[in-house]
Amino acid sequence: MSAAAAVVVRPPAAVGVIGGGQLGRMFVQAAQRLGYRAGVLSPLADGPAAQVAHWSVVGPPDHLPALRDFAARAEAVTVEFENVSAPALRWLARRGRPVRPGWRTVWVSQNRLREKTFLARLGVPLAPWRPVRSPEELAAAVAELPLPLILKTAASGYDGKGQIRVEDASEAEPAWASLGRVPCVAEAVVRFAAEVSAVVARGLDGQTAAYPVGLNRHERHILDATVMPAPIGPVASQEARTLALGIAEALGTVGVLCVEFFLTADGHLLVNELAPRPHNSGHLTIEAAATSQFEQQVRALCGLPLGSTDLASPAAMVNLLGDLWAAGAPDWAAALRTDPGMKLHLYGKRTAAAGRKMGHLTVLDPDPEAALARALAARRALQPTRR
Ligand code: AMP
């Protein structure tokens, strides 16, 4: 382990996150509670993270002058999302800044081809898939995989962007063309019974921690709701956590890792994708767990012991997308009145757009189904037209 890799960063040191969105914002808030001076490298001066940070450097994350400025201020660096230039992270690490997760973890998880190749070598169960980097590979994928399949761009995809479903062999070439014939993975469509995720953390000393598994519901490929613990029984839950911890170990990651799975009707787990950072499905750990996923990120980054992942209560989280603003500002008072126990999180984004994550609601309830019903009811109360 290099000297930088072993460094413990103590409060009130300055820690920095690359990326200025809601995940960066919640990291900053957790770091501040632990007494750190938390900053951000953000493309926007007034983005969700920069609004609450002690300090910020405005600029793109792979821009050398901005990185230099950031390196001069941050004594330890983490990321809020994986689409960050790996060479930029390596550059920061070479300047003696602990970068956690390290550039290799980010490099693997920012590209679906690299990620699937890594997971397949590890022996992790995956949906049948093929690389598509040429017309020949596309033809092979269509011939060898069961239809329908999904073509996903290898790079820069999130929330279902850069994905297209192919029902029939004749649709494959036009589908790939519409994605710009960039490198893709072709994946069999999984007829899953449920989607679940396991959020785990790995510390500097190799200590690990795993949250209970979350049950996720997606709408239009975007996470809509999470319930934790997922009602999938102890065997599948334990298997998901064990797989996620094994992946974190194999990546050698220091930080938080979320593994998203498909759970098939016959009880098999297939890994869908990795996020080497806190994840939307873990937001409810802010209220529900002894240690939130963001605090774990801070602890891992700073080389501190990880905290307990025990839940104080089952919980549900529902996202608030920009669509809720379509008929005007949501009725916050009505939602808070509907359920005084509900916790409202807004990310400070100035403009709402369809599909844009603006905030979320969390409800704790001894009955996880009731938690979800209450969170959904609170969200319905936000929409004047549907009340
Ligand atoms: P992803 O960006 O790969 O996580 O995809 C977003 C969402 O699309 C997933 O959470 C699923 O709901 C759906 N999806 C992606 N890949 C598949 C697949 N191979 N089979 C079925 N549904 C999928």
Describe it:
The structure is a single chain. With 387 residues, this protein is α+β, with helices and mostly antiparallel strands. The chain contains 14 helices and 17 strands. The strands form 3 sheets. Strands 9, 10, 11, 12, 13, 14, 15, 16 and 17 form a 9-stranded antiparallel β-sheet that branches. It has a 4-stranded parallel β-sheet with strand order 3-2-1-4, sandwiched between helices. The mean pLDDT is 95. Bound molecules: adenosine monophosphate.
Keywords:
four-stranded parallel β-sheet, alpha+beta, binds adenosine monophosphate, 387 residues, 14 helices
Please render the helix and strand layout as text:
Elements: H1 3-6, E1 14-18, H2 22-33, E2 37-42, H3 48-52, E3 55-58, H4 64-73, E4 76-79, H5 86-94, H6 103-109, H7 112-122, E5 129-132, H8 135-144, E6 149-153, E7 163-166, H9 172-178, E8 184-188, E9 192-202, E10 208-210, E11 214-219, E12 222-228, H10 233-251, E13 255-264, E14 269-275, H11 285-288, H12 293-302, E15 315-321, H13 332-338, E16 343-346, E17 357-364, H14 368-382
Parallel strand pairs: 1-2, 1-4, 2-3
Antiparallel strand pairs: 5-8, 6-7, 6-8, 9-10, 9-11, 9-13, 11-12, 12-15, 13-14, 15-17, 16-17
Helix pairs in contact: 2-12, 5-6, 13-14
The chain binds adenosine monophosphate.
Give me a quick take on this structure.
This protein has helices spanning 3-6, 22-33, 48-52, 64-73, 86-94, 103-109, 112-122, 135-144, 172-178, 233-251, 285-288, 293-302, 332-338, 368-382, and strands spanning 14-18, 37-42, 55-58, 76-79, 129-132, 149-153, 163-166, 184-188, 192-202, 208-210, 214-219, 222-228, 255-264, 269-275, 315-321, 343-346, 357-364. By secondary structure, it is of the alpha+beta class.
